[in-house]
Amino acid sequence: MVVGRNVFGQLGDGTTVSRFGPVKVPLAGVVAFAAGGGNSIAATSDGSVWTWGFNLFGQIGDGTGGPGPDIIKSRPVRVPSLRDVVAVETGGGHCFALTRDGTVWSWGRNLQGQLGDGTTTDRFTPVRVGGLHDVRSIAAGNGDGFALLADGTVRAWGYNDRGQLGDAAPRTG
Fold first, then answer.
1. What kind and span of H or E run contains 74?
2. What pLDDT sits at residue 45?
3. Residues near 163 by Cβ (< 8 Å), separated by ≥ 6?
4. Among the four residues 24, 37, 104, 124, which has the most C-beta atoms within 10 Å?
């Protein structure tokens, strides 16, 4: 059940009407869920990923996005290229999925390199986050991403204006 602001269809009920009481998202078997800046994401027990809400940067992950008729998806849409997903996260216009084999996939906004693919190009379908393996959990910030590895170390990538990547080298400006 979800409740709240729904201007981008982020509640997944097929409308853009904000709700003051709980509404059911039309998905069964949800095992992981995250909500971010205008979009939502869920993983289901069959390992599939579903997204809905604001889609300006391709954060729905189905190959659509940008201004025009695909800017809002008010019902859950399956991300067709992902399988065996065990965890999901969403940040400021980007999404992450962790698969059973310990790899991380990302899509959406990439202005600060938050997708971890070595570019700053927005991606409308998932790409693998480079250099990561044996990932146990993930987190998404506004313009960055984080992964906890099996050996207990943390990897971080993306925007670092306030030292949020933990490398003691914040950028200014």
1. strand 72-78
2. 98
3. 169, 170
4. 104
